[in-house]
Design goal:
The chain is of the alpha/beta class. It is built from 16 helices and 28 strands. α1 runs parallel beside α2, α1 packs across α15 and α6 runs parallel beside α8.
Amino acid sequence: MSVLLHPIMLAGTGSDVGKSVLATALCRIFLQDGYAPAPFKAQNMALNSYATPEGLEIGRAQAVQAEAAGIPCHTDMNPLLLKPQSDHTSQVVLNGRPAGNRDAYDYFRKEGREELRAEVNAAFDRLSVRFNPIVMEGAGSLAEINLRDSDLVNMPMAIHAGADVILVGDIDRGGVFASVYGSMMLLPEEERKYIKGIIINKFRGDLRLFEEGRRMLEDLCGVPVLGVVPYFKDIHIEEEDSVALAAKAAASRSGKVNVAVVLLRHISNYTDFDSLERDPRVHLFYTDNVEEISKADIVILPGSKSTLADLYELRRNGVAQAVLRARREGATVLGICGGYQMMGRMIRDPHHEEGEIESMPGLGLLPVETELLPEKVTRQVRFTAVEGGVQMEGYEIHMGVTRPAEGCPEAPLNLLENGQRDGCRADEKCMGTYIHGILDNAAFIDSLLAPHSAKLTAGAEKFDYRRFKERQYDLLADHVRRHVDIPLLYKILKGER
């Protein structure tokens, strides 16, 4: 490889048009073709985050894209992360570290934006020295004209990077002609020239039926339609948004271990459960229905961005009582991060990190108490189970310290490589941990399922999630290669078109 490629930005006609997945595909394609790609999104808004090897925090989508590119993730790939805390406020994470909570109205005002712009531009500049090409992702619609002056992530970022912009439209939601053409026409002429192509995403049906539509779009917009990518269901890439979680089927299945993930209002890091969802021994579903929880063999309390608010809601809607009843009747209960805090006897918030509630009793399933603190713990960890076994990997992102309740001995679940201890284990069917990604380890899943192994169909196979993910990235790259003109894309990125 001798020719450097321009940066590429996948910008959208709106949210959820498939920019993240296409960026993941291009990261893997460029890697396969001998380049050294890296992902970049100046600003991301998500509750799904990840800890870098340096112990800093970025959006999970960029961590997934880095994995597809075959490189460790870094904060320069997502220098600005907004983690919603309510309908109006978000925690601002800058270069991997919390920088305070901001009201949405104040955040999107012009004042102070240039300082943030300088930070995200500097992150891109550092990244572009180390990698080529940079696969950039926009946010929402690139034509949010009311936010143009404060925009950090779409066209101003593309212009700073000198990127070739590919506009992505979602044909599945309808109105693709208006959304693509309208997005382009709403841009000032000097910005429009950065748009070098169009990709139509999530097509259903016979592709030949869109040939005329493709030509019409090219005539209207004056740039090539690089591809029409069919909708797929058989390739599994970790999702950034939690909207579809409740739709996962809840009916119990024979021959499998039924796992219910409690559907919290502020659920975070739900990619913790992707490995279980793909495991052929498991039927996993998300629910806040007390009857469905009663049918589960394993109940998991997931992470939360607002632990006390979610705990209050679990008490109000009867789910807390259903979890306790499931435990009494023989189900396994596992808490991860905020879910682990909920399983203890008490949660205290003396510094009002989450709001006005200063303390609340937990579910009392584990003999521990938690104090929420201003400092956030973010780190990758290696660990083994206290019960012994192989070394495992995961990451921590939490604000709080959990200790044994007064008069109770320490009963950790895991021993960290650095000598520290993690979590609490009451018995083989009741435990909690701060470690996200613990379920990506086959050894932990095997131990979690072991008490329920009698339910499994004879010959049920174990599951290697890491190998599965690598295979999915390759399948995604193959899918996009088949339907996007990659040779033409290379010409664009080399400045030949």
